[in-house]
């Protein structure tokens, strides 16, 4: 969600001269609006999965961010902005089957749509105020269960402000949400057993147990051949293979879809789920288990009960690693420091320009 909320908020901060406090308020508000809409459409277990959730909530979340950053004069203006944003929601999941790059365009389009909605809503153009819950509205179009509007209302009325961003998890690896746990296990295995797993020929089988959600999501259970880096970021098998082979999973390793060592490991993999994992998934957890069987009769087994989400210092550490391809360590550290001082900035858009 951050790629849409922060992108649109920063763009308007630069365009309209927002303060740091406004930008922070926008980010918190955007996460809140994205969380309430995501919970409303997915919380009942009935939803048209041909659409990509991130793209469906992105324009609404980002438009909500812009309203929070610069609160309009009246509720009708807020309503128009958010309703226009709902009208612009889209994003089809076909990319996951083909490795298409439109996944990134989904997020960019949502950010742009939010800015368009923000500007249109302020003009006073009439828009349906029942676009969410009304006949042929958003909830009906997505096949959401009848309590979708109720979940939306309940969140607004009962949740404390900031719940959306406070409950946000931060991924340990640059891959799909559903492959985080298994990739994290493989990274640990590389660190602890690198010498033993170095020779693919010594491995008989790699068995993975994951959640039913991971197996069902388009592109996740994909043993190859892969066609793009997007496929690599989705594939459970590739995430594990790359982590075992390289000891890291980032934008560099996710593009090595033709690596012979990784592909050799992938060919030895099988993926299943079980009843206990299904129960954990129903409680909001994402457990995973990897078992590696060797020709000498030995085996390595590692399991996690949920994704090892990153804490604050670990987020900064991963940021420094990921951005090192574009910024020097000195410039990256300067950007981190400016983010930490953002609340007191008088021109947030300018203070974050470090180039």
Automatic annotation (TrEMBL):
One of its GO terms (molecular function) is lyase activity. It holds the Pfam family MmgE_PrpD_N. InterPro entries: MmgE/PrpD_sf, MmgE/PrpD_sf_1, MmgE_PrpD, MmgE_PrpD_C, MmgE_PrpD_N. Residues 2-142 form the MmgE/PrpD N-terminal domain. It comes from the Eukaryota. Residues 174-308 form the MmgE/PrpD C-terminal domain. Gene3D superfamilies: 2-methylcitrate dehydratase PrpD. SUPFAM superfamilies: 2-methylcitrate dehydratase PrpD. Belongs to the PrpD family. PANTHER family: 2-METHYLCITRATE DEHYDRATASE (PTHR16943:SF8), 2-METHYLCITRATE DEHYDRATASE-RELATED (PTHR16943). This is MmgE/PrpD family protein. It comes from Exophiala spinifera. The lineage of its organism: Eukaryota, Fungi, Dikarya, Ascomycota, Pezizomycotina.
